[in-house]
Amino acid sequence: MLEIERVLLSEKEIADRVRELGNQITEDYQHLAVKIGDAPNILAIGVLKGVVPFYADLCRAIALPLAFDFISVSSYGQATSSSGTVRILKDLDVPLEEYHVLMIEDIIDTGLTLTYLKENILRRNPLSFKIATLLDKPDRREVPITADYNGFVISDFFVVGYGLDCMECCRNLPYIAAVRTI
Ligand code: PRP
């Protein structure tokens, strides 16, 4: 059973930071974007499932036309996060040659998932590629990868909420909390 130790990031702190990230991304991509009404050339790729709340809020904070797509991956091997081997459970619906790709994640931990995804996506020749993550746990990194847009750097707490789960629990909490098992 889980016990919430403390709220790490409140609903307001998350909303404020997501708005800042959205403004920054809007500014950076403004020169690339098509006009509203034209087919978007920026593709926001969400890595399911933990990203869903952040994806929905961040995309609405970006004041540019975006196309949506999602990818679902599963780590497997010796352990869920240490094998470096990733299996695609649901692939993207579209080819990437005509898109600037913004890959959106909820958390970078060991970095293995994003390292795999980055290589995989780059092989599909997008016009450009950037990463936005809500959380970054640099202390846990096993491979060197950084995000272009980073919401919060956190210490190595076990965190749940705002999409993040522990065995599917707590994804729909509106805040992010550090938890411990009891
Ligand atoms: C989490 C998170 C990243 C990955 C990061 O996904 O959404 O995709 O782990 O870990 P890494 O940097 O160590 O590779 P998870 O496998 O928990 O799936 P979920 O998003 O469906 O909860």
Can you give a write-up of this model?
Helix 1 packs across helix 2. This protein has helices at residues 11-29, 52-61, 112-122; strands spanning 2-9, 42-48, 67-76, 85-90, 100-108, 128-136, 149-153, 159-160, 176-181. The radius of gyration is 16 Å and the shape is globular. The strands form 2 sheets. A 6-stranded mixed β-sheet has the order 4-3-2-5-6-7, with helices on both faces. It has a 3-stranded antiparallel β-sheet with strand order 1-9-8. The protein is 22% helix and 34% strand. The chain is built from 3 helices and 9 strands, in the order βαβαβββαββββ. The model is unreliable at 77-81 (pLDDT under 50). The chain has 182 residues and is α/β, with parallel strands linked by helices. Helix 2 (52-61) links the parallel strand 2 (42-48) and strand 3. It starts with a strand and ends with a strand. It binds 1-O-pyrophosphono-5-O-phosphono-alpha-D-ribofuranose.
Map the helices and strands.
Blueprint: E1 2-9, H1 11-29, E2 42-48, H2 52-61, E3 67-76, E4 85-90, E5 100-108, H3 112-122, E6 128-136, E7 149-153, E8 159-160, E9 176-181
Parallel strand pairs: 2-3, 2-5, 5-6, 6-7
Antiparallel strand pairs: 1-9, 3-4, 8-9
Helix pairs in contact: 1-2
Bound molecules: 1-O-pyrophosphono-5-O-phosphono-alpha-D-ribofuranose.
